[in-house]
Give the backbone structure.
Amino acid sequence: MSIKVPLTKFPLKLLVDVESISKKRVWDVNISELLNQFISLYSDYKRDLRLYGTVALSSSIIYKLQVESFFLFEKQSLRPFEGGELILPTIIDVPYRHEVYSTSVEDLIIALERIISSSPLKRMKKEETLVPVASLELPTDPFLMNINELIKEFKKQLLSLMDENHTISFRKLVEGLPLIEVVRNFLLTLFVAQEEFVDLIQEENDIIIKVLV
C-alpha cells in the first residue's frame, strides 16, 4: 500500500526525512505530538517495520539535537560577559508567550511502544508501565547523552553474540529485558544498521541481525 501524502509534507515529513529538520528550529518540533499524529494516520495500515524503524530513528535524532542545543545554550549563558559598561535597554511591555516542550525519553518510549506493539515485536514482554511526568526541566537521559559510547559497546556485544553465520536473533538478544531496554536495543540496532555495520532481515515474528564485518 502506498504511503499517504502527509508524510511528504511538514510536519510529518520530519519523521521520514530527518535532514529536513535543518529547515526548522529544532525546538519548534514537538516529537510526542508528531508521533501521535503518525499513529492516528497509519494505525489501520499494514505494518511496515522499515517505516516504523525510520520514524523511531528520526525521533531519537531530533530529541538528541534538542538535548545538545539545550546544553549549548546553557554553556553560552554561563560564559562571563566581556566588554565595557553594560547598558541595559529600556524594558518594553509586550505580549510574550514562552513554551518549552517537556518531552522526555519516556515520552518517546510510550509512543514507540504503540508502534512496536503493532509490529512483529508485539509478542515481547511488557513488564513496565511508563508514566510521563510533566516538567519544565529538560530531562538528561544517560542513553541519549552517551549514545556514541553505547553504539560502540553495542557493536562489541553483537560481535560476541553472533553465530557462525554472523547472525543474531533480535528476540533472543532482548529476551528477559524490561521494555525500556528492549526499545533502547531496538534504537541501537537502527543506528548500527544506518552505519552499515549490520543488515536487518525481517522474519514473521523476529528480526535477524546480520553483522557485515
